[in-house]
Amino acid sequence: MEKLHSKKEVHALVAQAGIRQYFSTPDLQFFACRYKKGEIITAPDQKLDTILFVIEGTVRIFGIRPDGTTSPVNQQTPPVILGDIEFSQQGTRPFFTQATTDVLCIGLPVKPYEKELHRDLRFLHALLHSYAEKLQFFAFVDAPAETLEERVLLYLKNFCPNHEFTGIEMAVSRLRCSRRQLQRVLQKLCTNGTIQKVGKGHYKLVGSFSPESQ
């Protein structure tokens, strides 16, 4: 991890990323830091007393099962909040976070503002949304589905806003399959009228298969 020392650059990044919209508390002092691809950002054995906003790059959030296998929670692109679970559990984190590309973060140390943050409804709402999104996807990963086709439909019905997604690479990561496997399933579902291709890498659930029509 490498911190950026230019206050002017940090202020510009905070403004550009719209970080202050997550807070009602004034006069917060942020910092910025970079993580290299492959670097572990958070881990269960490392107490985190900082709120991190990933503003550039992609991170992978995962757990370790008792048998040693990994349980992916999500691979996320900006905006991503890290430290949401730790804030609610006083620093304890059940998941690892790893940079899958070079990553740029805006950070806020919790201790100097702890009392204010516990009363900041805008901040707490943002944390709740972030926390819920992680838990929702964790439930999706462990949901029973025998085939990739079933997983794609489950993903579209229950986890995609408006029952559509854009971006094959992100879907590949979340569905834990190869690009070729996913494209084959998407083509089949388009052919039988279950989903519709709206644009490049953009698919949506249609017709009687969409929850709105049921």
From TrEMBL:
Pfam families xrefs: cNMP_binding (PF00027)
Source organism, top-level taxon: Bacteria
InterPro entries the record matches: cNMP-bd_dom (IPR000595), cNMP-bd_dom_sf (IPR018490), RmlC-like_jellyroll (IPR014710)
Annotated organism of origin: Subdoligranulum variabile DSM 15176
The protein's name in its UniProt record: Cyclic nucleotide-binding domain protein
Cyclic nucleotide-binding domain location: 35-134
Coiled-coil ranges per UniProt: none
